[in-house]
Write a structure and sequence with these properties.
- With 87 residues, the chain is α+β, with helices and mostly antiparallel strands.
- The protein has helices at 21-27, 62-67; strands at residues 2-6, 12-15, 46-50, 53-54, 70-71, 77-78, 82-85.
- The protein has a five-stranded mixed β-sheet with strand order 2-1-7-3-5. A two-stranded antiparallel ribbon has the order 4-6.
- The radius of gyration is 11 Å and the shape is globular.
- The two termini are 20 Å apart.
- The structure holds FE2/S2 (inorganic) cluster.
- Residues 34-37, 39-44, 57, 59, 72, 74 line the site of FE2/S2 (inorganic) cluster (FES).
- It comes from Duganella lactea.
- This is 2Fe-2S iron-sulfur cluster binding domain-containing protein.
- Residues 2-87 form the 2Fe-2S ferredoxin-type domain.
Length: 87
């Protein structure tokens, strides 16, 4: 598990191994648009302000993934204990 923090509210959410950032946030009423939920379409793309995403998508180019300033919350996870998102 890891945590995500929303920059706007400062709220922190725990993402369990069997769920996704997208699902946890949507369940909490934080709406992120999504479509494929498989890391293909890029609809859910979200800016990352702090922390290092564990990119699992097929959407971002390698250089874009390496920049670590955006990720796909439908499938990607975190390499750091916390990710701060621009939400
Ligand atoms: Fe398609 Fe996340 S919903 S990449």
């Amino acid at each position: 598990p890891f945590e995500v923090k929303l920059a706007s509210s400062g709220k922190v959410y725990t993402i369990p191994a069997d769920s996704t950032v997208l699902r946890v946030l949507n369940d909490a009423g934080v709406f992120i648009p999504a479509s494929c939920e498989q890391g293909v379409c890029g609809t859910c793309l979200t800016r990352v302000l702090d922390g290092v995403p564990d990119h699992r998508d097929l959407y971002l180019e390698q250089a874009e993934q390496a920049a670590n300033d955006q990720f796909t919350p439908c499938c990607s996870r975190s390499k750091t204990a916390m990710l701060t998102l621009d939400l």
